[in-house]
Amino acid sequence: MYAPAENRYQQMSYARCGRSGLHLPRISLGLWQNFGGTVPYESSREMLLKSFDHGITHFDLANNYGPPPGSAEETFGRVLVRDLASHRDELIISTKAGYRMWPGPYGEWGSRKYLLASLDQSLKRMGLKYVDVFYSHRYDPHTPLEETMCALDMAVRSGRALYVGISSYGPETTRQAVRILRDLKTPCLLHQPSYSMFNRWIEDGLLQTLEEEGVGCIAFSPLAQGLLTAKYLHGIPESSRVARGEEFSESLLTERNLANVRALDRIAQQRGQSLAQMAIAWVLRKSIVTSALIGASRWSQIEECLGALVNLHFTDAELAAIDQYAVDGGINIWSESSANR
Q1: pTM
Q2: First vs last Cα of the chain: how many Å apart?
Q3: What are 17-35's pLDDT values in tens digits?
Q4: What CATH class has 8-253+279-313?
């Protein structure tokens, strides 16, 4: 029978989400790629429970996470009922809807019908009465923003969610969405954008918008889907996403990108960190960034990422050196959703 580590909250630091009363761990765990039905259940269970043992209280999902879609929520639900049910009030569980989940005109985007139907399905898969955070996973240019935000408001008013957020919205649509939700008396808790040293789009207006509006920021893909690790410095591992043909394209492993990775790795070594640890610390250097949302395929990767919290300080000289190589790497596969609208 699982019993969590008694010192789990001494192993993690937490930060407040914007002007809300909610704190998140500085590192959160996302279940995007490696918790679905194609992964051994015990591997997923180990990562989830050891993460909780180390103070990671926030687990981030979406309706389409797997593969196959929906299976990550099912896996999480199994671990929840078996091991974590008595600790439900210590957990922040989030899910999202926006990308294609089922066929037909009501299976994706931002309509009220799709969002609330998807949330009901997610709750059923996880065996939950409510989630802590429900997100609009992407901006829908064909649905009135008021309809999408009213659906999020209904999720809270109906008891299906405690908080709401948005993901990959540009600065202007973020400001509009936040103000609509504020008028509805359901404040926007979080924005979840992609952000890394190779994908800095949020520095062009979005971070300022979030600061002005008092919204928290949780950055996903801080390791640029593994590019900002030692993984690709010596070729393409057979177990990597590139080798498996999943999302990350080999075309992104350009000599320019790899040269920048090698240079950043040298800076990380001078700081006494791995490249992954420095990349996470770099994302967390801005106070508006509440948490870095990592993914992993095994516990050792999560454990390495947690080491980033040992040193979150950068000197001006280190930041200047990093800026020479922290340039756009063409890896923002969510660029259509995160355009500056």
Answers
A1: 0.94
A2: 50
A3: 999 999 999 999 999 999 9
A4: alpha beta
